[in-house]
Amino acid sequence: MNAITENKPAVAPPKTKSRRRFPTELSIFLVLIGIGLVFEVFGWIVRDQSFLMNSQRLVLMILQVSVIGLLAIGVTQVIITTGIDLSSGSVLALSAMIAASLAQTSDFTRAVFPSLTDLPVWIPVLAGLGVGLLAGAINGSIIAITGIPPFIATLGMMVSARGLARYYTEGQPVSMLSDSYTAIGHGAMPVIIFLVVALIFHIALRYTK
C-alpha cells in the first residue's frame, strides 16, 4: 500500500494580547506626584497649611534635593551595575572638609592651612573632586582585583573616610570661607549644576552602550 500523506497547513499559534509596557519615565513622574500629594495632605492635617505652595519652602526643598541629587546620580551608576556603595556619604564629607579647608580666608587666625588661604576657587573645587575620585578608584581597584564584594569594600572605605574627616578637622567645623567658594552653594547655582550633570548622565546612559 502506498501511504498517502496530506499536506496540512501549519496552524498558527493563538494570538495573545500584547501588554503595553507602562513608560518608566511616566511612572517616575507619577510616583513624584504621589509623594507630593502625601506631603500636601500631611501639611494640611498637621499645620493647616500648604506644604508645596509655600514659595520659600519649595525653593529650600529644591536646593536641598539638588545637592543630594548630585550624590544620588553617582550612586545610581553603581546600583545599575548590581553594586552598592556605602561610602558615598563619608567620602562626600571628607571631600567637603578638604575643599573647605583650602577655601578659607586669611582673616581667620585658626585656618587649617594658614599658608594656603585666599586661594583661587578652582583649587579647592579640584581638591574635593580629586579626593572623591581617589576614593572611587580605591574602591573599584579593591573590588576588581581582589574580588571582595562591593558591600565589604565600600564599608571599609566608609569607616576610613569618616575617621579621616574627623581626624582632619579634629571634630571642629571649617568656617570663614571665601565668598567665591560659598557662592557655589548659594542661589540657583546648585540647581544649575545638578541639571547639567543629570543631563550629561542621561545622554550617556540613553545613547551610549
Key features?
globular, 209 residues, 2 domains
Any overview of this molecule?
- With 209 residues, this protein is mainly α.
- It has two domains: 27-58; 67-207, no CATH class.
- The chain is built from seven helices and no strands.
- It has helices spanning 24-47, 55-80, 88-101, 122-146, 150-169, 179-182, 189-207.
- Helix 3 (88-101) runs antiparallel to helix 4 (122-146), helix 3 (88-101) packs parallel to helix 5 and helix 4 (122-146) runs antiparallel to helix 5 (150-169).
- The radius of gyration is 26 Å and the shape is globular.
- The termini are far apart.
- The mean pLDDT is 83.
Task: Chart the SSEs and their pairings.
Elements lengths: L23 H24 L7 H26 L7 H14 L20 H25 L3 H20 L9 H4 L6 H19 L2
Helix pairs in contact: 2-7, 3-4, 3-5, 4-5
Tally of individual helices: 7
Instruction: Work out the strand percent.
Output: under 5%
User: What's the SSE pattern?
Assistant: HHHHHHH
Reported for the largest beta sheet, the result is: none
Class inferred from helices and paired strands:
mainly alpha
Number of strands: 0
Globally, the shape reads: globular
